[in-house]
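Board notes (copied after class):
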Amino acid sequence: MKSNDYIKGRGAQKNTDNRFAQFSNELRDDFLEFCRIEGEISDRNKTQYLPIFPKTIVNKVDSPDVGMNYSLNPYQGCEHGCIYCYARNTHEYWGYSAGLDFERKILVKKDAPALLEAKLKSRSWKAATIVLSGNTDCYQPAEHQFKITRACLEVFLKYRHPVGIITKNALVLRDLDILTPLAADNLIGVNISVTSLSEETRRILEPRTATIKRRLETIRHLSENHIPVNAMLAPIIPGINSHEILNLAKAVSDAGALSFGFTVVRLNGAIGRIFEDWIRKTLPDRANKVLQQIADCHGGSLNDSRFGIRNRGEGKIAQQIKDMAHLARQKYFKDKVFPKLNTELYEAHKGGQLKLF
């Protein structure tokens, strides 16, 4: 049962202090009482789109736990509001909170397509899959308005360069006219995140994302258009969705996914405080149990930064999750293979058109 002060349509229920900031803000009860008496709104809960102008757009990924070498994020911050999102901590580098600010102050990189093209035209660049997202969802609601992801995909098609996508939004289907020719040359792989088959669980974990039905339909439509799909059953949260692994794997396999991956939730930095505040307001009857089980997967702490362990966890609960995932692969993905993307066409198209000589 949600508490009375629950903010509908958002994941985080407060702004945590920015670890880099000298000062902090506090929403005091006397201010809230003043707003009530005066009939004023203390917080309009609106999303802001703020343009930023980075000098580069392709990021080298050094973490051995992330299945990519390069990423490109058209947006920073994410309106989807997934309460567990590891990217929340990065918003502090921009001077904002990892809490509500992460969902309501969306930084927009309108120059991303031009920066990407400059990167692909660079003489020193060698073809390697660049993943759209990796930090925040490239098909979050802002993409309806700004269409930066679509413009980047057009650049990848122009240069016949391999690209991956990570999203939990059905908006990816809007760009089938670009994805289909990319797939024809084996230049695209799409990762669709499916965290639960329960719509109620989805609504509280990921408040502004596509419904589970729409995500499974998205996997089906992509697969029918010969676009390879990997399903991300992530994160697995003990006591919330850990019991769904087999059913999730069957559902995404039946929809056409060729493979799946999973991670065990970890709550680093400010995310631990944000998650704990959220679960005590949203699922108070099981909050202590869930928090304890998460900690049991990470050496007794919600925070785990150990390479090679942090995304899989350790201990009995983590092993049970791993065993269920192994069984799911044997049952539902035994004869399926996600293809390696093509890096051979790029050099011939590096100038923006096919080289004849």
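Comment from the instructor: Residues 44-263 form a domain with the TIM Barrel fold (CATH 3.20.20.70). The longest helix spans residues 316-332.
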